[in-house]
Fold this protein.
Amino acid sequence: MKLLKCILAALGLLIAVMALKTATFTKQEVTLLAPLNDSSLDKQALAMRLSKAIQFKTISHMHPEDNNPQVFRDFHAFLKTSFPALHQQLSLEMVNELSLLYFWQGSDVSLKPMLIMSHQDVVPVDSETRERWLHAPFGGEISDGIIWGRGAIDIKSGVLGSMEAVESLINNGFKPKRSLYLAFGHDEEIGGVAGAKKIAELLKKRQIEVEFIIDEGGSIVAGGIIPGVEDPIALVGIAEKGYVSLKITSKAVGGHSSMPPKHSALGVIAQALVDLENQPFPANLRYSKTMFDNIGPAMGGVNRVVFANMWLTEPIVESILSGSKTTNASIRTTTAVTMAKGSSKDNILPSEASAVVNFRIMPGETVESVTEHVASIVNNPNIIITSVKGFGNNPSSVSVSDNQNFELIKNSIYRVTQDKDLIVTPYLVMAGTDAKHYSGLSDSIYRFAFNRFKPDTLDRMHGINEQIKVDDYVDVVRFFRELIVGANL
């Protein structure tokens, strides 16, 4: 009887603690500050310049011989004519021939400079998908208040948007105290090795210390994209996952398909792929905990109780997050089988079969540890594991999110949106950006582009019918203006 009373008392205490934590698990109060006067921004002129920028086919191809350097040079000439005040006031340095590094000298040399990044290049448009585009992918057409075309959101809107902000500020008589760099690489879509990496190396060689850096990577997502949260969320990346693609290969005698062995080379590979998919990497909630501390209070019912008490409910949280492909990618190194190859004819047994598996690597793990993990799961001495083209990069450094630089970005977002329901939170970027090359230049490297996404528009980045609303693009420009002015207060 005494034991039962003790159990009931402990249970009551546990329920009370959980109830208290849930009751105090509330959204932060937001004070909306007045935005800058944007009456000098000509919406139609902004849209037209972005439209023209999209028409330059600054495509990064996997095979260097397919690239066209001249189209980048033509794009640079367009920028020079489009932003005369900027080119008169800022110095321009060409890095590795095609990348652009602008510098706006501030009046207070004791202040560390800020750095805004973007990239000039875009991904190709697959020929078999062109008929599914509602407007020509490189037409830059403006229709029904929307700018259409490759680069609209990834990310000529970042290049043009930041330059529009600077041009506008110069024309309005603004003189910065804090110096500003604009860095635009030309090969982000194939790793940024010739562009952003070279810019970063140049700045490091000059021993430049940067107050904060902002690149693409996060965005504003509508309610419902993250399960259980109906409020919009501004995701500001503080780190990004690493990347490696591993090729697994099996060799066999081959022969005629009328006399197959128990497992062909392709069958061996298929089994290895099933094993890899069935044994995912372990979850790591360390880098998503802050995000869910911020968005958890916006959840309802049981979910709010669960996220308010992660000290007790972490296994349940892991199960919830693992159930959605969006949130699953935020808590573990992901395994994606993307390519496979067998024989050249349906009645020939393959003498060699292979598959490519892409991994996005969590901070705390490395290319080497992922390769070792894959080898342990495959556990077959007859399967060869190699890195595709020897390429891979480890996760980036993790930036701080409890400082004035993160607060500046947060305030700039609120000043543009004027939305108290919006939740601004740090998060881990799933894909790769040029920002990874800048590790070591600042402890405040953030990834956020002022793009807005709904569940049905997420796939437009790198996809069909890439587009941005004219009003949303104006907000991109407004965001950069708020950021630059805010950094000078």
Q: What stands out?
A: The first helix runs from residue 2 to 23. The chain is about 35% helix and 20% strand.
